[in-house]
Amino acid sequence: MEQRARKRGSGSKAITGAKGLIETGLVPAEHSETIQVVEASFSVRLTPHIIDQLSGARNDDPVFVQYIPDGRELSFKADDMEDPIGDAVYEKAKGVTHRYPDRVLLKPTHTCMVYCRFCFRREKVGHPEEALNRGAMDDALSYIRKTESIWEVILSGGDPLVLSDRRLQALMEALGTIDHVAVIRLHTRAPLADPKRITADLVEALRKSGKAVHFVIHVNHANELTPDVLGGLAKLVNNGVPLFSQTVLLKGVNDDADTLADLFRKLVANRVKPYYLHQLDKARGVGHFHVSIRRGQQIMRALRGRVSGLCQPAYVLDIPGGHGKVPIGPTYLSENDDGSFTVTDYCGQPHHYEEIAADQD
Ligand SMILES: *Cc1c(COP(=O)(O)O)cnc(C)c1O
Ligand code: SF4
Predict the structure, then answer these.
(1) Which CATH homologous superfamily contains domain 88-327?
(2) For a substitution probing ligand 2, which of 112, 130, 220 has the most ligand atoms within 8 Å of its CB?
C-alpha cells in the first residue's frame, strides 16, 4: 500500500489528520487550532488527487467545503444523532445491517480514502480497528448464506475499495458461492477520491463472483468529475459494471437546480445513472450543510421536464429510527373527493384526470 501511494500522482501522499492537512497549506495557519479540535471528534483524510484538486481553491469552493474541516462542525444541535438512521437495531452480525428483506449492507471496513465533512456515518468511520477480521467476515458470510431472502449484497462502510484487490477478490469468490445472491452492489467514493484505484486488476477481482456487480458512486458536484475520474468510470462501464450515483443535497455545494442539472447531465453523458438525491441525515455537526425539504422539492420541480428523464434521481429521506428510505416528493398527483385526480404538469398547471372506468372492484 505504502509503495503504491508513493507512486501516485504528483508524488504527494494521502494525508491523515489535522497536522498533515495543515502541512498541505490548504488552510490558513489561523485555522489550525480549530481543525485540530474538529479532528478530535471527526476523522480527517485526503488523497493526493483531492489535494491536487483543492490547491488554489477558494474556501467556498464546492469541493473544498466537502473535505476541509470547519469550526461549525463543533456546534451540535440538540436533535443531532449519533446513529441518525437507526442502523444499530438491524445489526445481524458484526458489519451486517439487514433492514430490508431482500438486501443487506455488508461493511467490511470503517475506513475511507477521504472523510467528507457531512458524512452520516461520521461517528463510525475512521476506526481501522472496526474492520472485519477473518473470523468476523466468516460470521457475516454465514449470516448471508443462511438467509435465503437476501438477493442483493451491498458493500458499504467506510469504503469497500479501501480493501486490497486480493481481499476484494476473496470476498467476491465467497459471495459467488451463495446461490440466492444475484447482485453485488458497491457504494463507493473511490472513483472520485482516488481515480488510480480503478485498475484492470480491480475489474478482474470484481469479476470473480460471477454475479452482476453494480457501483453506486457518491458525487455531489460536476467539478468532482475531472478527466482522471471520468477515465476511471469509463474503465468500469466498458468492463460491464453498470454505474449509478448518489448525491447529498448540501448547502453551498449543490443547492440549486442549475448546479444539479450540470452534475446529473455530466453523469448521464458519462454513462452514470443518477439514482438518489439524499436529504442530509441529522448527524452531529453537519447543520451548516442543511437544505430544507421545501427547497429540495422546489429544486426537483425545477429539474422535472426541463432536464432529461435519465437525469432525474429520486429525492429520498432516510427516516430516523431505522424505518428506511422513502421518496419525499414533490408530488404531482392529488385525489379529489369524487375519486378523480388533479395532476400538475412540470410548468405547474393543474389538469383533471379520471382513470379508465374499471368493472366493479
Ligand atoms: C440504504 C440502505 C439500503 C439500500 O437501499 P436501496 O433503496 O435499495 O438503495 C439497504 N440497507 C440499508 C440498511 C440501507 O441503509
Ligand atoms: S466516503 Fe462516504 S462513508 Fe466515507 S466519509 Fe465520505 S460520506 Fe462518509
Answers:
(1) Aldolase class I (3.20.20.70)
(2) 112
